[in-house]
Amino acid sequence: MRKSRWNEKEIEDMLRELPKMKDDRTKAEVMAGIYDKKKKKRSLHLLAGVASLFLMIVVASALMTGKDGGVGPEKSDGSRKLSVTESKESADYGAKSKESSSGDIQENQTLSGNHDEMEAKDEELDIEPFNESQEKTFAHAIYENDLKNVSVITLGIPDDQMNVIVPVSFKLRSFDESDTLNRMVKQMSKVDEERYGLSDYFPLDVTISEGSDRKTAHLEFREGSPLLDEDELFLSSMEETLSYNNITKMTFATDGKQGARFLHAGFLEKLDIPEHKRRTYRLYQKNQSSPKLLVPSTVHYQEFAAALQAGKRQSELKGISPAIPKDLEWERIKSKGSHVTVHLAENMITEDSERNLQAIEAILFIAKDFGYETVKFENASIEKVGHLDLTGEITVPRAPNQMN
């Protein structure tokens, strides 16, 4: 501490020289003044306490609001970030809507337009959904009398093991035959294969368009397309798909040049699709939650009777089982032109059941594969199975495995 310049003696002398002051107040007046000062001091303390309490309430309220309503520092910052992002997205979207100077923007606009168009088309495609209870049962065939004001598209899709091609069919609102390939390609993009226990296969890395006529499909590949190496599965899928859609021939090109070189099939410029493939039919089901689907064999048979017997046999392939029960017997088979008659043994088809319906439809599709147009079942124990009348000729189905 710095030492004072004055000593005690000097200070006393200075104080004595100050003028004398006289207090005329009484002792009572002095005490009253002291009491008033203390009272004022207490009042000030009280006011300060009330103000502090009010301030604490305001601060606590603000903190609680920040926690619940997002006004606190951390929340507020997060909200600002989200708003900036949203504003940027809105601005970007507006710019994309008004400008087309960038290639990326043009591509996004094209994709957006196509998506909107597809959504609009979707509303006119589906007729009835394939509900959950139906998914676990046998998928019925589509017949000609089911197609009043309705068209059908069939797609050949590999099973989940990529062993066989399973045809699945969709009822669509009626369209002109000239639009078949366009609708088929749209359905390829729309189908949910895994829902039916099949492989996720479509859409394909190939451009499909109408060829020289409505019975020809032109397939354009890019150089190095994996489909050229996976040609056995691909060509089987396309044959199954196109044959049900009234296409009898495929032509091929690669990057604008005629023809395509496949790994197994070699160089092909065109490929005819056989009308009658002479196969048997079995059942495919991935698991208990998937529908039972009729599936054609990869083996071809010389005789219709041999194909029927093959439909009773077990397969080594996973998920494949007989479509025709072993105990379903027939005594003779007669054919004339496009008609075939199956004369059943005694006490066959005695009940209207899913088991008998899938057996009859398997026989109808085997007949279709051999070029027959109508089938007659003689000596059945009942008159109807499902909607099929066993007392007369049955026209073979238009397409298998209805999915909607």
Automatic annotation (TrEMBL):
Membrane-spanning residues: 44-64
Composition bias, Basic and acidic residues: 86-101
Ranges of compositional bias, category Polar residues: 102-113
Chain positions covered by the region annotation Disordered: 67-120
Keywords for this protein: Membrane, Transmembrane, Transmembrane helix
Keyword Transmembrane included in the entry's annotation: yes
Protein name: Negative regulator of sigma-X activity
The species this protein was found in: Peribacillus simplex
